[in-house]
Structures are given as structure tokens and as C-alpha cells.
TrEMBL record:
GO biological process terms held by the UniProt record: glycerol-3-phosphate catabolic process
Cofactor(s) demanded: FAD
Species assigned in the record: Halomonas huangheensis
Keyword set, alphabetical order: FAD, Flavoprotein, Oxidoreductase
Region ranges (Disordered): 536-569
Protein name per the record: FAD-dependent oxidoreductase
Organism classification: Bacteria, Pseudomonadati, Pseudomonadota, Gammaproteobacteria, Oceanospirillales
Similarity annotation: Belongs to the FAD-dependent glycerol-3-phosphate dehydrogenase family.
Top-level taxonomic group: Bacteria
Length: 569
């Protein structure tokens, strides 16, 4: 907690150039870009960083091939270039992956027509990835025996990319970069609104961990509150050209369905792309696309039935998937940027995730609508330009604010890892050598781990059963990753709660030691808090009123006036 406490103190001590409200992908990339170029930045989130939409994605980094059907070629071209840039900038984290799409009889396009479209997609991406190929039903069965090809006309394979770890972890890497560049950031701090006086915003905030109030001053405010951007603009008196429409998407995490490292893609019963995505020892399936009126959403029986029905129709499994196979769920809304003179209902399933930025020069205020993880580097650069237009000096305009350390640094890490025999310490249950995983997750921060392991081999031991997390990683999280609650670590800094069942987590002998490392004397409190929250969520989802209709609770929740949470992935 020392990192968070020191940042809370900094919040009230000075006037910042920029205050960013919302620590999802938009807010995190904006903070990293501004801080990396020398701007004095503060970043807050009313929950944990990336705790809303940015932890509920498909973990895919893709060029938006589905937008080709609506002829939005400019957006596809832009997203493909953004995807390529992320692969180049984060080669250990953002990696090319093949998509195998099966087309059934009666579909609106013949498989060869779609295959031709993948070639256009490949060309629009500058031929950066492996070339597409066409597959007949027999070839599909040979390569992915679990696919039901009884009704298949054929299929095609093409490339996009995915996140090797998880979306929330990737978002936090930008927050960590911002902190390293001198930014002030704090989670669990909500915005109660702000007033502008004499060219300075006076922002009223609340520390939700103890309900204490504080005031922060900033020359510019950036509203990156994701699904809650409209509500926060109401608090600050902003009138914008855009607003949000909401689309709910869910995923189910189930036992591994195929050992092949590729994404299986189908067209679901509603015509939308439907994915089977590798997630380490598990498989992620989804997603849905349900129009919602409010950003607060929950999984319903209909959502789960839709995903299970679609996957069981399209795969030939030894035993159909049921609710008993569900290890974890993901549920969130996609905030879709809509012009204020539109209602967002036109061609809802074809609405894109492109972002929009509205600026009030008079007030020194910026609002970020929509967006997705693939386009995060563009968002960061665009925000720097807009902040400069509002009169904020950019001390280091050419500074690079993203990407992995260079090859020389990586080579130095590998040499040091070899000196201490790191890969020989890799647990037998791990999916990859320790040198690969520690470098991908921590970059230069992994050097300190090597030194601790070199001094004490116990630092390389697994701490939580069924996971790949070492004792030294928990110490790193405690000092460097602002883990405030146990869920922050289990769900966002790692993906433990996505791939390990709650029962297994609860019974893990190493969990208590992990809590002691993370929270010290508060370990028992945080442990009890986590399981109380999990039981409460399960009881709510199993209640008949919730299963039938979550609208009433959503309407009640949407009245909250204290905002400042994560943005779109």
C-alpha cells in the first residue's frame, strides 16, 4: 500500500497539467503518452485500473475484419496498421495468431468469397502477417477434429493477434510506464465532479477505501471514464458532440477444448462472429452482442444459454459443454461512440469500436468516447496533440513512451538468467521457460527478480497451486503494482481467477502466504473481503429476479454520481 499512499499524498500537493479520470485502456495510454513526454499528469480510477470494460475483452488485437462487410475500409486499414505496430512494439506480449473460420451451408456468402476478402484484409495490413488459405471440410476436420463439419461448405484461415497474458495486465503496463515517467496515479479514487476557476479545474475526489475527501487541481481534465463518460460530463457541465451506446458482451472460460494454438471462429445464430480462444490451460468462448441502456450489466441465463448453444452446435465434443464446465465468466459493455444527433440504433451489430475525442477549448476539457485496445497507441498520440492545443507545454515531444526494452537489454537479461540457471528452475507444470515469462511480464523489472532468485532459490518456487506465479512475483506486485485488494492481483495483475476455479483458489495453501506478502498485517482482512465479495456476486446471479431481468438493478445503479472508472478495450 506504500505506493498508493505516496501517490495519494502527491495528488493534493501541486497543480497538475492534466488530470485523467478513468484508468482503462484509453486513460492508461493517455497517461503513459503524456507523462512519457514530460507532462505533469495525475490518473485516478474509482475502482482498480482496468476494472471495467478493459478486463472483459476477448484478449484479441485485431484489425476489424468484420467491418469490411460494412465497407468501412479506412477503419480496417487503420486498425490493421495499429495491430502491426503493437506486434512490433510488444513482441513478447502481442503475438500473431491464426484464425480458422468455418462457413456453413446457407450462409449469406460462399466461403471462397470470404476467402478472397481475407486476401484483401491481408493486403490492407501491408502483408504483415502470414498469408490466408482456403480449407475444404476434410482439411478442417484434419486440423481441428472438434469442429462439426457436417454442414460446412469450407473455411479459411487468416492472421490477427492476441495478448499472451490478459487485457487488464496489458493496460496496467501503461499505468506502470506512466508512474515510471513521473505521473501520479491512484486506484480506488472516485471523482465527485469539478469546477473551473481562473483557468484551473478544482476536482473533488474521494478515497473509496476510507471515504475521505480530497481536492486536486489541474489545468486540463480528460474524461476517460469509459462507459461512464456521459455521466461524468454531466457532473462537470460538459456538452459534447458524441455520447455512448452500449453493447453487452460475455465470455465463458471452460476447460481447454483443443491443444492447437489458434482461434476458432464461427458465425453465431445472430450472424455475429463467435470465437473459441486459447487461454493457457483453458478456453475462452463467446461473445454476445446485446443492446443495453445502461453501462452496469450482468450475466443472465439467456446469455449463458446463447454461448453454450452456439458452441455445442459448432463443435463435436465427447460431451456437450454445460454450466458445470464454466470455470469463470467475463461480462461487460462495449461503449460505442455515437453522434449526439443519432440514437445509436441504426445497424447496431455493425457499429464500429472507433474512438472519438471531443474538446472544449474554453474549459480545457477532453472527452474520449469508444475505442478499443488495438488502437491504444493512436489514442495516446492524439491526446498529446490535443493537450498541446489546449496550451499545455510538451517538454519532450519526440520521446517514445511505449514498447518493450530493446534487444541489448533483452540479451543482458538472458545472459544473467543463464548465469543463475533460471530456466532449470522452471516448475514442471509451467507452460514456458521462466526466462520467457518473466521477461514478457516485467521487462526491465525482471532484473531485480533475477537477483532475488540468485540469492535465494525459494524465490523461484510456485506460491499458489495451479498457477505459474512465483514468490518473487508477489513481492514485485506488492511494491510496484498498487495491489489494493486481493481481486486486483487474482483478476487483473494476473489471470488466476479466470483459469482457476474459486474452490481451488480457496483451498490453496499458498494463498495465505501470498496475501501476507501483498498486504502484511491486513492479509486476513483482504482474504475474507475477497471471498465475501465472490459469494455475494454468486448469490446475486443465482437469484430468480436477477436471472429473469437485470434491468431494475441497472437502472438503480446508473444513478450513481461518483465516477471515474475504466475505459473500453
Amino acid at each position: 500500500m506504500q505506493l498508493r499512499n505516496s501517490n495519494l499524498q502527491r495528488l493534493t500537493e501541486d497543480t497538475f497539467d492534466v488530470l485523467i479520470v478513468g484508468g482503462g485502456i484509453n486513460g492508461a495510454s493517455a497517461a503513459a503518452a503524456l507523462a512519457g513526454k514530460g507532462v505533469k499528469v495525475a490518473l485516478i480510477d474509482r475502482g482498480d485500473f482496468a476494472s471495467a470494460t478493459s478486463q472483459q475483452s476477448s484478449n484479441l488485437v485485431w484489425g476489424g475484419i468484420k467491418y469490411m462487410e460494412s465497407h468501412d475500409f479506412a477503419l480496417v486499414r487503420k486498425l490493421c496498421r495499429s495491430r502491426n505496430h503493437l506486434i512490433e512494439s510488444f513482441p513478447s506480449t502481442v503475438q500473431e495468431i491464426r484464425f480458422l473460420t468455418t462457413i456453413s451451408k446457407g450462409f449469406r456468402f460462399h466461403p471462397r468469397t470470404l476467402w478472397a476478402g481475407t486476401w484483401l484484409y491481408w493486403l490492407m495490413g501491408n502483408g504483415f502477417t502470414r498469408i490466408p488459405r482456403f480449407l475444404k471440410p476434410r482439411a478442417i476436420r484434419r486440423e481441428e477434429s472438434i469442429i462439426n463439419t457436417d454442414d460446412a461448405l469450407g473455411g479459411f484461415e487468416y492472421s490477427d493477434a492476441y495478448l499472451h497474458d490478459n487485457d487488464a495486465r496489458f493496460v496496467f503496463s501503461f499505468v506502470r510506464n506512466a508512474l515510471d515517467a513521473g505521473a501520479c496515479a491512484a486506484n480506488y479514487v472516485e471523482s465527485l465532479g469539478a469546477k473551473r476557476e481562473n483557468g484551473v479545474w478544482h476536482c473533488q475526489l474521494r478515497d473509496v477505501t476510507n471515504q475521505s475527501d480530497l481536492e486536486v487541481r489541474a489545468r486540463v481534465v480528460i474524461n476517460a471514464a469509459g462507459p461512464w463518460v456521459d455521466q461524468h460530463n454531466h457532473l462537470t457541465g460538459q456538452h459534447t458532440d458524441h455520447h455512448h451506446a452500449f453493447s453487452k458482451g460475455i465470455h465463458l472460460i471452460v476447460p481447454q477444448l483443443t491443444e492447437q494454438r489458434r482461434v476458432l471462429a464461427f458465425f453465431a445464430d445472430d450472424g455475429r462472429l463467435f470465437f473459441v480462444i486459447p487461454m493457457g490451460p483453458r478456453t475462452c468462448i463467446g461473445t454476445t452482442d446485446t443492446r443495453e441502456e445502461y453501462p452496469e450489466v450482468e450475466i443472465t441465463d439467456d446469455d449463458i444459454n446463447f454461448v453454450l448453444d452456439n458452441i455445442n452446435k459448432r463443435l463435436t465434443l465427447d460431451k456437450p459443454l454445460t454450466r458445470d464446465d464454466i470455470i469463470a465468466t467475463r461480462c461487460g459493455v462495449r461503449p460505442l461512440a455515437v453522434r449526439s444527433n443519432q440514437n445509436g440504433g441504426r445497424d447496431f451489430l455493425q457499429m464500429s469500436r472507433k474512438h472519438a475525442i471531443d474538446i472544449s477549448e474554453k474549459d480545457g476539457h477532453i472527452s474520449i468516447f469508444g475505442g478499443k485496445l488495438t488502437d491504444c497507441l493512436n489514442v495516446g498520440e492524439e491526446i498529446v496533440k490535443e493537450v498541446q492545443q489546449l496550451g499545455i507545454e510538451i517538454p519532450e515531444p519526440d520521446a517514445l513512451w511505449y514498447g518493450e526494452p530493446g534487444p541489448e537489454t533483452h540479451q543482458a537479461f538472458i545472459e544473467r538468467a543463464q548465469q543463475i540457471g533460471l530456466d532449470q528452475m522452471t516448475p514442471s507444470t509451467s507452460s514456458e521457460p521462466l526466462s520467457v515469462r518473466l521477461w514478457r511480464r516485467y521487462g526491465e523489472g525482471a532484473f531485480a527478480m533475477l537477483e532475488r532468485i540468485g540469492q535465494d532459490a525459494a524465490q523461484a518456487e510456485l506460491l499458489i497451486e495451479g498457477t505459474e506465479y512465483l514468490r518473487c512475483e508477489l513481492e514485485h506486485a506488492q511494491s510496484r503494482e498498487m495491489v489494493t485488494r486481493l481481486e486486483d492481483f487474482l483478476r487483473r495483475r494476473s489471470k488466476i481467477s479466470l483459469v482457476v476455479s474459486e474452490a481451488e483458489i480457496h483451498e490453496s495453501p499458498g494463498l495465505k502466504e501470498a496475501c501476507e506478502i501483498l498486504f502484511g498485517n491486513d492479509a486476513d482482512i483482504r482474504l475474507q473481503e475477497y471471498f465475501t465479495l465472490q459469494r455475494g456476486q454468486q448469490a446475486h446471479q443465482q437469484s430468480p429476479a436477477h436471472r429473469q431481468d437485470g434491468a431494475t438493478s441497472r437502472q438503480a445503479d446508473s444513478g450513481d454520481s461518483a465516477l471515474g472508472t475504466a475505459t473500453a478495450t
